[in-house]
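Table S2 (continued). Query chain:
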Amino acid sequence: MFSPAGARSRGKGRDGTPAAAGRGRTPIKQGHARLLSSGEEASPSSPSTPLHMQLPQSSHWLASPGTRSPLLRSSTSVRSSPAIRSLEKSKADSSQPVFVSDLPQQLRTVLLQEGPDGNTVDHSQVCGGMDQITGLSWMIQGTHLFVWRHVSHQSSESFRIFPIPHELCTASGDRIDPKHGNSWAVCIVGLQNENKKSSIKFHENYINASVVMCNRKSLAVVYWTDIFSEAGSIPVLGLSTEDTMDLTTLSGRRGDKAKHVSSMVACSYMKTDIQGCVAIACQSTGELWRFDCTRHGIAQKKVCREVDDGPSRGELGESFYIINSAAARSVAWRSEEGASKEGLRQLLLLTANGIECWDVELATGYQIHLLWTFDVLADLDSGRVLVGQKKVWLLDFQEDTAHRRLKLLLASFSRDRVNGSSYTQYFTVSYSCLSNSVQREGGVQIILPKARIEEENFLLSLHLRVGGKPEGSVMILASDGTATVAHGQGGAIKLYQFDLAWDAGKVIDACVLASSEENEEGSWLVLTERAGVWAIPGKAVLLCGVEPPERSLSRKGSQNEGPGKEDRWRTALDTSRKTSLGRDEPGLRKENPEYQEQSLQDVEAEALVGHLFTEYLRTGQTDGVLEKLQQAGAFEKEGATNVFVLASKAIVDALPKHWTSTMVANTAVLAAVSSQLAEKQRKHQQLLHFLSASKCHEELHHRQRTILHLIMEHGEKLSAVIWLRELHNSSAQARLQGSPDSVRSSKTQVAELGGAVWELGLLAGEKARRNNVMLLDRDKAEIFYSRVSDLEDLFSCIHLHSDMIINKEQTTQVQVDKTCEISYACSKALQTAIRYRDSQHTWYPSPEGLTPWYCKPVVRLGLWKLATLILELKEEASVLLPSLVATLMSHLEELADVLLEAYAGAITAMVEREEEYRGLQMEYWSRRDLLLTAMHHHARALLEIATNDVHDENGEQKRLSALRGLYSPLVSLARRHAGYQTLWDICSELKDMDSLRNLMHESMGLREGRFSNFVFEQCYKSKQFSKLLRLGEEFKDDLALFLQNHKDLLWLHELYMQHFTLTSSTLHWLAFSKEPAVSAMVESIQGELRPSCKVGKLKIADRKRLLNLAKLSALAGGEMLTSEKVMEINADIEMLEVQAEAYHLNISEEDDVLTPRQLVEMCLRSDNPDLILRAFHVFAWGGDIFRRSNKSLLEAAWLKAADQDDWILMREVSERDGWSDEQHVEALQNTALYQAAKCCYSGAYLQKGGSFEDVLPLLQEEMGGIDTEVESVETILMQHRDFPEAGQAMLVAVQMGKCIEVYKEVGEEMEL
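Corresponding output:
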């Protein structure tokens, strides 16, 4: 049916008991189809109805029954297989299973050993599994446990054999005691360091692990504390204290079955000093057991849980019944994010009708307790999901940690109401994980709508796996040795059955290959009984999956069965391809053109390019090549999918025919890879000449720049990889010469020979293997030095996984050595690529808008990670090992150069493409300043140490000379990347104004961000005004632009440039500015300009001086005394005089700046006769607009002026004393009305704008041509209380003020 039930990927192993085989299960070479076709009836009288049908193969290139067994291979490589070689010769077929690794040699020997009769020993009771977290596989054969890493290219790298304790074996020691049986549950617990926690799933070489093994029958437990250490490989045995040897059955139950351990999980202790782990096992009848395993012993305890041992048949909506609802199916840890509090972890238990959640305290001696339960069957029944189902089994479950989703596998027994046939239906249901429960997501996903009826024992042997590619797919493993991937595609389910040759044996277990990227699915891995570990690419599931009614999931049909079967497979494949064309597979084709579908035209065009290139190499002729390629559509596609780019990529990424996987200390071996890379470089150059000779280069150069740019980048990366290989060769030979041993074979010694760059290359190769399962059978170093186009992965590994090479557990010396080695390699590799670009510049297209590969984010992140590591190590080494600081900083200098160039190139391309670049520019600036500042401080510290005892004049000169030498490379770097702060600091320290001026003349940055502008800003902030203005003598325009925001000094610069009119305007604005001004401006007026100036407000006297200077500047600029500009300045001076008088009377503040209206209101409120009259002066100086907009205020001023004299008393005195005309005139001339009229209407005083008559006529009779609504002074005075008795005198006074003649020169009223 499905596949053999292997160990759960989270640590559970498959039951290898003969339960399946002993009940008449189908042998490997005989199988039954377990599906009912849509038109076939199942016999009601028969519990099962076999369907005889031909099924498509999943692998059309599989060997015939006579193919040599993979167990007989002499090495782990599968390149001896002609089928594999044919795939590698062209492009790898990602629609087929991919060989990953073979079984360890010792295990293969055990499997092939012969019995006394000369035949191979029967290993049908195989027991094994895979652990996804640690990347370890295990298998039990005889009395030994075999553990190895299933993704390692060489299984011997991390392979261990553990003998099972003799207490569990027979007296002869050749097999397990029958009272225990051969069925085991095995859990592998990873022992990880906190510093390596983020990368533990990706790089397996840094994981230690412990193993817990529990006998399913007797509950005997064996524990190995650390399988990769000598001390931890000693087993700890714990025998059951309960009488579990007697396999009593539960009487009265339908389908009696033995009491056995159905599932087990384990987890290491947390927050405790004791090294150990907790294992939880569930038995089929529902009992839970807790095992506390330490190196001192194993404590076994039964968990209190209600278990119904009697027959129980509970009705649920009268749809179906449940037998023994407490029976346990499986256990699994919930993701660590779901823990209720620290030190606890939640355990999920799948029962016959639902899910239970338990809290487990991860410390020795503690218990577990139930948190909540969830009835799955009740939930499905209430949602009417299981309508018509007679009986339902919960089979298995597993949590998808990436999506926080729980997936359940269920089976149901149903009967067709039309024809009465019975069938089994398989389906899955998803639940989202909540804090205290789960919630169903939608309905069920039917996997098999109609399948043959199975025994309950077979149903309960099915296991579920989740999390592989394609996204959302699940794998179902069955005890008959089949593995089936189910994937929802286009609203319908598609099934893909993993199938290999006859001698591959059963599928023991499956897991997901850990991806190198966070939150991304990996490919499916399956462990076979005889053929090792194989990967199922996501593309294989998409292309080769078929609908359930058309394919059996049994083992029948796994061999070549004739042309009819092959045609049927071709039809299914073609149909699947049509539905999948153009549809991106999540996680597979993301930013990876290798997984993009190619049209027939693309395939033909690619083949044509290869054929024409081969002909060119043979004949040197290119006649008609361009026309042929144009007709074939070779120029149609853009980017990485273009056939020219693919041809270039095929050259630089070609895998070698031969590879030495171990790093042997041999000159020939070291040179072999270099020669392979040199051959690639030669062939890539031939491709460029082919493009040039055929005129394709010209076509690409003018119309498809991106394609040509990508082709040339392949050459850059190839030159960089060649340099890295040369560095590795020289480093390896140097280490060998310094080693007393001529041969080194251990893994640690090999790493030491290769150095940190070698480890980094292995890490990048491992990343490529994880991302492309087609490379899983290749050596990591081979992949790194062969897949040249993926050189960016090197920097991605630095950014994400540098702690795998450089970690805090190492000594400071080792960390510094490794960091400097990687930094040197990366810097020189990128510089080599740039030199290639410079030397081959004639081949390149125009660079506008194209981002070089070394300017892309992944490269920048890797370089920045190295820079931060160097800075961190510098702080540590400055305390512990000061001698290493200079080495670190020298490497930082080289690294900063390439890093900042990468930022500059990326920003330039974004600007040319008119994209938003400000965010990247801010990041560039901040990191540039950080790096330059660190290097500056280091250079200064070096000099301070060297000249600490020198204090004379000659010593100072020597110090400055030494500083210039130390700062020279830093100045060069800062100049290229506009490091203004560093340049300013260095010039200031060296007191070198000449160098500062030279740097200011360079065009660094935009106009508003040039270095000259930065220098002006620094001078202004440090109050170096004299220095600032002196720089303006040489940088007139730049300083004028800068001082637009600093007008307190702008007028001085304008005065120097003899822009007198602009100076007058600036001074006029400053005189009435309400912003705080620098008092240096006032001091400069007084002839004192000191750098200790403070910020403050200007006084009235200062403002008057500024206005006088403004008038002088205007006159110097050619203005006349009667010009509007000069008159406006005079008016403002007069108003300041009024404000000064108010200040002397304590009416206003000295530094207040009052508007004309505020000034008039203040005068009228003062009740001072002089100030009241001064209000009319303000109106005269304010201008027409001010008078018209404040007419009501002007009327109030006239009434206020009339109040200043006692008109009734004046009349009485004149009548009593009999005044003459002269006395009347003299008395009226002393009135305020006379003075006001004289100011406003006589023309004797300075006025701005037109006459007062235009706004307010003096007498009513003068309003002949003015609107009647406009009032006059006469009508205003008529409102006065004394007007009825003294109105004539008031009018005479104002008339006298208007008609009096005053002969004064205007210039006499001006005071400077």
